[in-house]
Amino acid sequence: MIDISHGPHGETVKVNAFWLRDHCKCRKCYNPKISRRIFSFLELPKDMKVKDLQYSPEGEKVKVTWSDDHISKYDIEFILSSQFQNFKMKHSVDTSPIFWNVASILQNRSCLNVKLGDLCTSDTVAKDVVTSLIRYGLAFIQEVPPNLTSTEMAIRRLFPLMKTFQGEMFTFPDVFLQDEVTKVKAFVEPHTDGSYYSDPMGLQAIHCIEQSGERGDIFFTDGFHIARELRQRNPKAFDILSRVHVPTQLVVKDEHHSFSAPTIRVDPITKKINEIRLNMYDRSLFNTLPQCEMQDFYESMRELLTMANHSENRWQLPLEPGTMVIFDNWRLLHGRCAYSGNRTLARGYVQRTDFLSKARIMNILE
Which residues form the TauD/TfdA-like domain (predicted)? Predict the structure, then answer.
């Protein structure tokens, strides 16, 4: 360990020698244009030692000469801010998502809507949409012509499209196999999509481009909100749903996707809720838990689903041609009321990594 001095009173922080050398950003070690290291870890001497330490007159920088005569220069503030305790403190509190129920989301509804014309011509409006997705998990784009091309244009204004076995953009008319639950006219309970993928779609966009007969409202539940409520109300149930892997699968012609993961994913360091993966329709053989523990799991799942369906948490609204909704599929549960007549939905997905990348480029996230 190396003692690095800082502050006016000669305080010190202990830093691992390999960590310090690993974070050298000289031209031999780091390419700032692409923010990547350019050395092999195995090139570092196994018996890494400091040969000399020199501080700048102001005490804000330190120059390290290593035992192999390599020279590294560091800002003291970088070393201090990069320590684990600072990371944990900074990231242990959710500051970006604004958890909501129906009452609170209705109070902020005006923040969720933009017009397609404004989105296409203003980078500020584009940032507003991504900000809404980060904060509330959804955004609405108004005045979108009811066709697949315009819907695709609206999505591509912000993100590249994710390609699945359904393609990049696709429609859901009523004429489908009757054994696919989301493609018939019955009620569909709150769920997330793509639970059978190892990396489910990060965002989903839906636009009703044709509607006749009695409408089938869409509804959303903030999965992060109900998971947080469950954690406070019933810690045992929260622990079970964040620990037990639930197997899911999709088997169609030329496709067989299968994956198992907990319903609630928690960051192991910060303990923040990172993902809700909940689809009771896509479950496959549940053999990842001893039978003696099954009852606790089912009771925990029942409590979460009851919360998801409660009227105070389930925001219900019509799907109308001209209004496209885009929402966070890792956070929000969505479902649909039963309907009659004919309806066609235009749909597209965005990968999680592309969504978060755009938020960082816009300085919404670090």
Answer: 113-349
